[in-house]
């Protein structure tokens, strides 16, 4: 029977949080390529061994931290209506992409993914897939309620949810006007063929 780990073997949540914060700040300031385990450890006020107890490499550390940050912000709230669910989902996406640190991190990670297939696949599987899974639950719930067509192309619908916000905020770097969310909501409802649109 395995004994319960004690002392240094226990992963303390406050240390993990300090490291997570340090990773996000270092990514925002230095980018993926220049980020070092030494700098993260120094910023977090821990030894490098604390990082290696949690992750085996810089790549694994960055992937885990960015995935946790990103997936936790993909809401899965049942408001009782597609319109309500979409409003919450789209607002959460805007909040994710405009986060003061993440808005500086994402463009660098996208560029790194273009150069580094391993990074691209890690981002797809640890961020893209779980976020899309949550969106699919919302869409299928709306289909079950009769708010969306039974033959909805769910894959295309998930692209329609994310693409306008990503294009506007990350690619174009365009401002988000006060009425943007409501205008986008109406547009997405029509694009999905929603029954109340």
TrEMBL record:
Positions of the DNA-binding region: 36-55
Statement: the UniProt record of this protein carries the keyword DNA-binding: yes
Keyword Membrane: no
Domain HTH tetR-type: residue ranges: 13-73
Pfam families documented for this protein: TetR_C_11, TetR_N
Record key words, sorted: DNA-binding, Transcription, Transcription regulation
InterPro entries per record: Homeodomain-like_sf, HTH-type_TetR-like_transc_reg, HTH_TetR, Tet_transcr_reg_TetR-rel_C_sf, TetR_C
Name of the protein: TetR/AcrR family transcriptional regulator
């Amino acid at each position: 029977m395995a004994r319960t780990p004690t002392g240094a073997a226990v992963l303390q949540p406050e240390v993990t949080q300090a490291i997570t914060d340090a990773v996000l700040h270092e990514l925002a300031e230095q980018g993926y390529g220049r980020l070092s385990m030494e700098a993260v450890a120094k910023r977090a006020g821990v030894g490098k061994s604390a990082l290696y107890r949690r992750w085996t490499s810089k790549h694994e550390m960055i992937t885990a931290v960015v995935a946790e940050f990103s997936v936790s912000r993909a809401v899965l709230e049942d408001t009782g209506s597609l319109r309500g669910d979409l409003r919450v989902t789209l607002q959460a996406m805007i909040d994710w992409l405009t986060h003061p640190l993440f808005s500086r991190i994402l463009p660098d990670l996208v560029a790194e993914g273009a150069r580094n297939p391993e990074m691209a696949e890690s981002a797809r599987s640890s961020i893209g897939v779980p976020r899309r899974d949550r969106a699919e639950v919302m869409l299928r719930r709306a289909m079950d309620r009769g708010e969306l067509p039974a033959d909805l192309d769910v894959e295309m619908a998930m692209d329609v949810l994310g693409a306008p916000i990503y294009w506007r905020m990350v690619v174009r770097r365009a401002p988000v006007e006060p009425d943007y969310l409501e205008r986008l909501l109406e547009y997405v409802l029509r694009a999905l063929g929603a029954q109340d649109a």
